[in-house]
Amino acid sequence: RHIKFADEIFVLNPAHVNGLCDGLIARGYDLNIWAYARVDTIKPAMADKLRKAGIRWLAYGFESGSERVRKDVNKGYAANDVPKAVALTRNAGIFIIGNFIFGLPEDDLDTMQETLDLALEMCCEFANLNCTMAYPGSALYDIALQEG
Predict the structure, then answer these.
(1) Which end of the chain, N or C, is surrounded by fewer C-beta atoms within 10 Å?
(2) Residue 36 to residues 21, 57, 60, 68, 119: CA-CA distances in angstroms?
(3) Distance between terminal CA atoms of the chain?
């Protein structure tokens, strides 16, 4: 009954999401599904269908409250996408897991405050406040090695 879709781009392909949701809805399962979404790809009809299919939680990678910091890590959504996605998700009856990162390459005290302010403003039902990690194989890891 409790399922997690560990696909970080789950809502990216509407045909895939709609097909999966249609199948779940047709079978009438009573599910509690946790999935990932992107603030720049979630749409009203999709949110309603996700809820009907049993998706009760959507995790968004908000990452940073700073446009400059987001742009640097290729999170190219507009600032107004965040409150729109949050409202859309809540209006569909889906809970929100917000993921925020502190210490990204362009972060400073002011941008990290912006991130904290965003986390407080969004008031997600669940939030992950993470420190940046430079994992081997990532561009950030290469930068960390270069900079000592």
Answers:
(1) C
(2) 14, 8, 6, 23, 17
(3) 47
| Rounded CA separation 1/95 (Å) | 17
Residue 65 DSSP one-character state = S
pTM of the model: 0.88
93 SS3 class: coil
Distance CA 43, CA 87 (A): 11
Q: Per-residue pLDDT tens for 68-121?
A: 999 988 887 888 899 999 999 999 999 999 999 999 999 999 999 999 999 999
**pLDDT tens, position by position, 63-77:** 999 999 999 888 878
Q: Angle of helix 109-122 relative to helix 81-91, nearest 10 degrees?
A: 20
Half-sphere exposure of 38 (CA within 13 A, CB side): 15
